[in-house]
């Protein structure tokens, strides 16, 4: 067991909340401090390397499969670890923030996996961060039942049918300002990973599962190596055998799509495959190549997964995974069920089509954003898997993807429509309003919106302005109208802050890398010495 020798170097800079002491124990803080001490510098290097690479690509360096790792790709002999308990059959995975009611609903939903999300679906208020950890602790201890003020009861169902928990920590770009190690904010990824691992890893093993993770927004193999080293140290510190952790990496940046094999290879003893994180992938394309006219995207609604460059990415993902014995997990169709029966039917039909394409392409399962979508995803995968838990045997040797295929965006280019411009502004503003209020995922106009889709919305406006396919006056006029509509619809919303956030992140000369660090620092941080 750990000593608390480092505890004095870790400081909590937040007022104590209800039951926070169960999570922020001296031993847990000590553990997070050890991770921060061991990996803080490497995380800083990761961020520097991201900026260097972005500059190289912006100045015209070609993006290609790395020459230096060609031997890893050419070597047919290596495989990732076999699926861990609870992760063999992943035909339906539900995602959502680790909020209490949603946690119970997700675990009972009939999905095989629940991805408890501190990233795209969570607004990282301190309350959400620590409350999420408490909910996970209670969920793993099977004591997450609760009753609403109206008397509606939420309880876990049949233990044999509960979803396996996988936790997605925040990405490397975010700090946790309420926790300091040696006077600096702790990387948010290490807080989310560390607290969950410390409290729940052994409990999960005792329950016949394990500490499982989803890793967001990686840009290259070095970041995968960093995570692997974190897993090794975390397991060693708690006396958990190496290879117990499993992690599915989201391939949701364009540079990572060129290093899928390498990412699996770096993590191979801890790998649980790859996931096609389509929304951040599109955002990454805009961010990485936003300066190039041949990467101009049309309205978001017109960019579908049948676009050739997106098919190239998803098919390469399946092929790469299955060559290495790893699960390939599909992404999120954004349509969510609604109250109107006709709209609901249309949404279900769209999700069905999306899942059918994934299942036929060889994916082993896929994501849904809502319990109402579990049956449709399950039916589609049941139909393709026919009794098997996955389709790892479909090696997709027919797939041959070149760098040009991955980057052939111009084939779907086209000017934005006035509705497309307005929708992006409306969605970004409404999402920012929810996020600043502590809600990281919302349904807007029939679609699930989260941090990744909001990033696309504001980045598209930036890209269209940059290439002068829309003019600034039009955008400012629409912004005035949409801010007024927002104020009327959400009287509680701080419209001036929201507008300013939009202006900083969509109308600036240079595209800010993410909207979240800026919005977090200005609006979500509530540091206090009282909690130190
Ligand atoms: C790009 C990406 O990264 S995708 C992954 C990240 N994004 C996500 O995970 C989004 C997850 N989805 C959600 O958060 C929600 O579905 C939303 C916000 C889009 C819509 O939520 P709501 O407006 O509450 O939907 P709705 O009213 O139809 O919900 C009906 C019930 O289903 C529950 N529910 C909805 N979505 C989920 C979910 N993902 N997990 C668990 N329960 C859910 C609601 O809590 C509600 O439960 P109740 O009847 O007990 O009150
Ligand atoms: O995290 C998933 C995505 O699509 O982004
Ligand atoms: Mg994402």
Automatic annotation (TrEMBL):
Per the record, the GO terms for biological process are: glyoxylate cycle; tricarboxylic acid cycle
- Select a single GO molecular function from the record's annotations and give it: malate synthase activity
InterPro entries documented for this protein = Malate_synth_C_sf, Malate_synth_sf, Malate_synthA, Malate_synthase_CS, Malate_synthase_TIM, MS_C, MS_N, MS_N_TIM-barrel_dom
Keywords, sorted A to Z:
Acyltransferase, Glyoxylate bypass, Transferase, Tricarboxylic acid cycle
The Malate synthase C-terminal domain sits at 417-521
Family as reported in the entry's similarity comment = Belongs to the malate synthase family.
Pathway the protein takes part in: Carbohydrate metabolism; glyoxylate cycle; (S)-malate from isocitrate: step 2/2
What residues does the Malate synthase N-terminal domain cover?
Answer: 11-65
Reaction(s) this enzyme catalyzes, per UniProt: glyoxylate + acetyl-CoA + H2O = (S)-malate + CoA + H(+)
Q: Which organism is it from?
A: Streptomyces rimosus subsp. rimosus (strain ATCC 10970 / DSM 40260 / JCM 4667 / NRRL 2234)
The chain positions of domain Malate synthase TIM barrel read 164-408
What's one Pfam family here? MS_TIM-barrel
Which superkingdom? Bacteria
What cellular component terms from Gene Ontology apply here? cytoplasm
Q: Where are the transmembrane segments?
A: none
The name of this protein is: Malate synthase
Indicate yes or no for the key word Plastid: no
Q: What are the positions of the active site?
A: 168 (proton acceptor), 450 (proton donor)
């Amino acid at each position: 067991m750990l000593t608390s020798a480092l505890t004095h170097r870790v400081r909590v800079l937040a007022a104590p909340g209800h039951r926070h002491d169960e999570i922020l124990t001296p031993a847990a803080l000590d553990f997070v401090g050890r991770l921060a001490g061991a990996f803080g510098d490497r995380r800083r290097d990761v961020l520097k390397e991201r900026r260097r690479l972005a500059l190289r690509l912006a100045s015209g360096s070609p993006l290609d499969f790395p020459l230096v790792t060609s031997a890893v790709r050419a070597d047919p002999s290596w495989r990732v670890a076999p699926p861990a308990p609870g992760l063999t059959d992943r035909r339906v995975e539900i995602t959502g923030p680790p909020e209490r009611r949603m946690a119970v609903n997700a675990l009972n939903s009939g999905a095989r996996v629940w991805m408890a999300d501190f990233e795209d679906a969570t607004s990282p208020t301190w309350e959400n961060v620590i409350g999420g950890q408490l909910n996970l602790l209670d969920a793993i201890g099977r004591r997450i039942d609760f009753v609403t003020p109206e008397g509606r009861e939420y309880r876990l169902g049949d233990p044999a049918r509960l979803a396996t928990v996988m936790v997605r920590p925040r990405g490397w770009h975010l700090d946790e300002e309420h926790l300091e190690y040696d006077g600096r904010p702790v990387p948010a990824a290490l807080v989310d990973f560390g607290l969950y691992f410390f409290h729940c890893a052994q409990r999960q093993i005792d329950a016949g599962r394990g500490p499982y993770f989803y890793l967001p927004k990686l840009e290259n193999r070095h970041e995968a190596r960093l995570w692997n080293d974190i897993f090794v140290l975390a397991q060693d510190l708690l006396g958990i055998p190496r290879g117990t952790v499993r992690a599915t990496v989201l391939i949701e940046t364009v540079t990572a799509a060129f290093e899928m094999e390498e990412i699996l290879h770096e993590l191979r003893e801890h790998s649980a495959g790859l996931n096609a994180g389509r929304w951040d992938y599109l955002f990454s394309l805009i961010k990485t190549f936003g300066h190039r006219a041949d990467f101009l995207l049309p309205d978001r609604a017109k960019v579908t997964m049948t676009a050739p460059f997106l098919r190239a990415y998803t098919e390469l993902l399946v092929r790469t995974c299955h060559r290495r014995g790893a699960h390939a997990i599909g992404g999120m169709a954004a349509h969510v069920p609604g109250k109107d029966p006709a709209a609901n039917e249309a949404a279900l039909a769209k999700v069905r089509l999306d899942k059918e394409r994934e299942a036929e392409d060889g994916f082993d399962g896929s994501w849904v954003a809502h319990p109402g979508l579990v049956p449709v995803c399950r039916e589609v995968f049941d139909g393709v898997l026919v009794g098997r838990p996955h389709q790892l045997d479909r090696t997709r040797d027919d797939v041959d993807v070149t760098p040009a295929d991955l980057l052939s965006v111009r084939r779907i280019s086209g000017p934005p429509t006035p509705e497309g411009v307005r929708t992006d502004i409306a969605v970004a503003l409404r999402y920012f309003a929810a996020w600043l209020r502590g809600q990281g995922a919302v349904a807007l106009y029939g679609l699930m919106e989260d941090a990744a889709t909001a990033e696309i919305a504001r980045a598209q406006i930036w890209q269209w302005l940059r290439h002068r396919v829309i003019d600034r006056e039009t955008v400012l006029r629409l912004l005035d109208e949409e801010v007024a509509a927002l104020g009327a619809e959400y009287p509680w919303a701080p419209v001036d802050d929201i507008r300013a956030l939009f202006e900083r992140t969509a109308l600036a000369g240079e595209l800010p890398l993410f909207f979240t660090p800026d919005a977090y620092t200005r609006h979500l941080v509530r540091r206090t010495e009282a909690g130190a």
